[in-house]
Amino acid sequence: MRRICVCSWFIQNSHYKRKYHQTSITIMAPQCPSDGMPKESSPFINNTDNDKGNLYDGKNMALFEEEMDSNPMVSSLLNKLANYTNLTQGVKEHEEADDDEGPSPALGTLIGVYLPCLQNILGVILFLRLTWIVGTAGIMESLAIVAVVVTDSVPRCWSVAGGSYYMISRSLGPEFGGAVGLCFYLGTTFAGSMYILGTIEILLTYIVPSAAIFKAEKKEDEAEALLNNMRVYGTCCLTLMSLVVFVGVKYVNKLALVFLACVILSILAIYAGVIKTITHITLTSDHTSPQNNHNFDQCLKTMEVDNVTVTTKLWSLFCDSPDLNATCNEYFTLNNVTVIQGIPGLTSGVIRDNIWGDYGPNGMLVENKHQASEPAADTSQDIYMPYVANDITTFFTLLVGIYFPSVTGIMAGSNRSGDLRDAQKSIPIGTIMAIATTTFIYISSVILFGACIEGVVLRDKFGDSVKGNLVIGILAWPSPWVIVIGSFFSCCGAGLQSLTGAPRLLQAIARDGIVPFLQVFGHGKANGEPTWALLLTGGICEIGILIASLDAVAPILSMFFLMCYLFVNLACALQTLLRTPNWRPRFKFYHWALSFLGASLCLSLMFISSWYYALVAMLIAGCIYKYIEYRGAEKEWGDGINGLSLNAARYALIRLEEAPPHTKNWRPQMLLLLNLDSDHAVKHPRLLSFCTQLKAGKGLTIVGSVLEGTYMTKEAEVKKAEQNIKSSMTTERTKGFCHVVASSNLRDGFSHLIQTAGLGGMKHNTVLMAWPGTWKQWRAFTVRETTAAHQALLVAKNVDSFPTNADRLGQGTIDVWWVVHDGGLLMLLPFLLRQHKVWRKCKMRIFTVANMDDNSIQMKKDLQMFLYHLRLDAEVEVVEMHDSDISAFTYEKTLVMEQRSQMLKQMQLSRTEREREAQLIHDRNTASHAALNDKADAGPDRVHMTWTKDKFLTERNRNRAEASMGVRDIFNMKPNQSNVRRMHTAVKLNEVVVNKSQGAHLVLLNMPGPPKNRGGDENYMEFLEVLLEGLNRVLLVRGGGREVITIYS
C-alpha cells in the first residue's frame, strides 16, 4: 500500500531584513563634515573658503549655526537617505563576498518577483496531486478548493512589502516576531524535508524503481518498504544538498533558471497533450487493475495460442496458479475484463462523470460506478489483491490541506525585497500577476483534467493502472518523461532553496538577540554564511526525513506557514487601523479589510486542514512568545502592539472619565511619595514592598519624589533619581510608573504631584508616604492637600521594620482601631493585605471605642453583623474609655508642647529682626558712600537717610525689650484648654492601643485631622507622636471622604 505524496513549493531568499515602506531610518547627528575638514574657528562666517565643507552653508545659514551639531542640514540628511541600505551583514548572497564585482544589479518586477513566485507556486502539487484531487473531489469541489486557497492568498499579497519575519517583528513587536519567525523557520525547514521526500518518491517510483533497497514480497508490506527507502535515500539527498549550500549559494541561484525552465516546459507539455494523448487502461469489470511492474500488455484473462486456451499474466495476479482450474479471487472470477480509454479526450463527455466527487475510506477500491459488475459475496481479501485502492480516508478538508502548500510560494518575491529596484512597487504587482497567472493555470488544469481523463484514472494516485507512470504524464506531449523530469528538478530546486533560506532566517532572528539561546546561530563564516544555522537546519530536516511520510510532514509545514501569513495580514491591518504615522503604503489598492479577510481565512484554514496540528502550532508559538517576553532581550522597534496598547488605553481612559467608579470597583490607586538620600537613592525601599503587598500588582501605582531646585539645573539629577527609583521598583516587584519633579521647595513639589499625577480616569485616590524623620521634613500641609483633593492618606511609621516581599509572617494579628468612620478604608486595607502571601496567615482584629453613654454589648453585636454583611472574617472587641480627670502628666506635656511652639516662633521672629538689622546697616553704608562721592556744591539737604543713628539705636533697643518680655512670657504662660483635652485623648488612647496591640504585626489607626488654625501644625505633630508612642508597625489611615466598601458584590 502506498502513501499519499503531498509536495509543495516554497523558496526562501537570504535577505530577511528588507526594505519596505514602514522602515524607520535613524540618522546620527554629524560631529564633523563629511570631507574631514575642521570646523570653523573664526567668529566670522564668510572669511575663508574652507567653510564650504562645513555642515552649514556660509553666512546664509549663520542663524542656525548653533544647531548644526545636533540637527543636520537638509542636504546632508538627503545625502544619507540616498545612500541608505538596510541589508544586514551576513544576509548577503555568498557570491557577493567571493566576487569583487560589487553588488548585484537591482531586479525588476518580472525577474525579481513574478518569475520566482511562478516557479514556487507551480510545483509538485500540480504534477503529483492535482489529478488525484480532481478525481476525488470532482471538478466543482476542486474549483472550490482552488478558490478558497487563492482567496486566502490574494489579501496576503496586498499586505506583503518585505521579508516576513522583518515585517512581523517590526510591526507586532519582538515577542510576536520571534514566535512567528521561529514558526516560519520551522515551516521552511520542514518544507525542505517534504521536497526531499518528494524528490526521492519521484526517483524510486517513476524513474528508477529498481534502485529501491527495501523491497516488499507482499502488497501489505509495500508501504513500510517505501518508508524505509525514503529514510535511506532522503538522508543521502539531504547530506548532498547541504554540502551544495555550504560550498556556494551562487550555484543554487544559477540553477534556479534551469528549474524554472523545467516547470514552464512541463506546463506547455500538458496543454499540448490535452488533445493529442490517448491511452488505454485495463478494468476488471468496474475495478481498476494495475499494469506497472508486471510486464503484461494483454488486458485478457485467457487467450488462444495455436488453438489452445492459455492464461495470461493478468491471470497469475489474481489466481494461485496459471492453470485454468486454479483458485482465483471471487470478484475476478465473476466479472470480465474490460478495456476502456483512460483519456477519452475533450469531446468524449467524460466531464459529466467527473463533476462531483467520490470520497471514501482508507482501503476502498477505486471503481467505475457506471460500469455494470457482479458483486462478490466475500470482499475481505480484495485489499490484498492488486486492485487500486485508497491509501487514506478522503474528505474535502483533507484535500484543502494537501493543496494549500502549492500557494506558499507567493512569499518568494517579498523574501527577495533586498535585491529589488523598487520593492514597494514590484512586490504587490509581481505577486498579484503571479497569482493571476497560476490561478488561471490551476483552474484550467482542473477543468481540462476532468474533461479529458477517466475518473478511475484520476483517482489512481500513483498511476498503477497506467504502467506506473504519472497520470498527468500520460496526458503530456510528446512524452511522460517531460513531466517526470520537470517535477524531479522542481523538487530538487525547492529543496535547495529551502536549505538556503531557512538558515538565513534563523541567523536574522539570532542576530536580533530576542532569543538568548539562539545567539550562537548568528555566527558564521567570514563572509556571513550561516554555518551553524545550516547545521541546525539540516538536523531538523533529518527529523522530517525520518518521519518519511509526506502525509505527516505536509500538515506540519502548512500550519507554520498559515500562522506566518496570519500574522503578516494582522500586522498590516493593525498598522492601518492604528493610523501609524510611519505606515504609508504606496500600493493604492490596499485596504485593511483585505488584510483582515486574509487573516480570518488563514485561521479558518488552519482548523479546516487539521485542528489538532493547528492547536499544536499555536501552543509552540505561545511558548516561544512567553519565553521571549520573560527572558528575551528588550527591543524597541516601534511595533504596532505599543500603538494598539496606546489606543486601548486612550479608549479606556475616556470611558473612565465618563463617571466616577462605583464603590464595588473602588480599589486604592496609589501615589507613593518617596524620600531620597544625598545620592538620589530610595531611602525607604520597604515602603515599595508594602505598596506591592497592598496592591498585589493590581490597579494604578505612581511612585513620585521631589528634588529642590529648577528643572534646568536639576535635569541630570532628576533622570538619575528616576533610574534609581525604577531599579528599586524592579527589586521590590512594584509595578507602576515613576515620576520625579524638580521644584523650588518640597512643599510645592509634593503639592504638584498630588494635584497632577495620573491621567484622566486613571488618577490616584490614595497617597502613601513614610513617617517623617524630623518635623522639618513634613508639616500638616500634606494632610490638608489630600483632604482638599478628596484623597485618602496612608502614613507608615517605622516603615523600615515592615516585612519584605520574601518574608512570611507567622500566626499573628492585624489590628484595626476604628475610632471614626471615614468611608470604610480601615476595613478594606487588612483584607487587601491578607491577599498577599506575606500577610496571608495573619488574623484580623477590629477594635472600636465606646464612651460612657454607649452600649458596648450592642455595639459589638452591630459591628459583628456589619462585618458579616461585608463578608469579612475578623474578631471584634469594644474598648470602653471612661471619662477621667486630666492627669498632671498630660497637663505638663501640653504645657511643654506649647512652650516649645512659642519658643520656635520667637526664634523665627529673632531671625527676622536680625535680617532687618543687616538691611539697615547695608542701607546706612550705601547712603554714606553716596554722600562722600557728592561734589562740593551738593548741600546736605540733598542726602536723605531713612535711618538716623539715634533712630536706629532706639528701634534696636525696643525690639530687644520686646524679645526679652516674650521669653519671660513663655515661662509664665498657661496651656490652652483645647490642647490639653487633645493631649489627654492622645495619651489615654495610646495607653489602650499599646495595651491591646503592642504585639500585633501591624496596627491600623484613624489619623486625626489637622487643626483648622494652621498655626498649630507643630502641636498637631506632637499629638500624633504621643498617639503612636510605644508601637512598632503603625499605619495611620485617613479616608478620602467617600465610601470605599459595600455589602454588595
Automatic annotation (TrEMBL):
What is the catalytic activity of this protein? K(+)(in) + chloride(in) = K(+)(out) + chloride(out)
Alphabetized PANTHER family for the sequence: SOLUTE CARRIER FAMILY 12 MEMBER 7, SOLUTE CARRIER FAMILY 12, CATION COTRANSPORTERS
Where in this chain does the record put each Amino acid permease/ SLC12A domain? 113-290, 390-671
Boundaries of each SLC12A transporter C-terminal domain copy? 685-783, 806-1049
The region annotated as signal peptide is none
Q: Which InterPro entries match?
A: AA-permease/SLC12A_dom, KCL_cotranspt, SLC12_C, SLC12A_fam
Q: Member of which family?
A: Belongs to the SLC12A transporter family. K/Cl co-transporter subfamily.
UniProt entry keywords in alphabetical sequence:
Cell membrane, Chloride, Glycoprotein, Ion transport, Membrane, Phosphoprotein, Potassium, Potassium transport, Symport, Transmembrane, Transmembrane helix, Transport
Q: Where in the cell is it found?
A: Cell membrane
Please state what the protein is called: Solute carrier family 12 member 7b
Q: Give TM regions.
A: 130-150, 176-209, 230-249, 255-275, 392-412, 432-458, 470-496, 556-577, 589-606
Q: Name one GO molecular function term.
A: potassium:chloride symporter activity
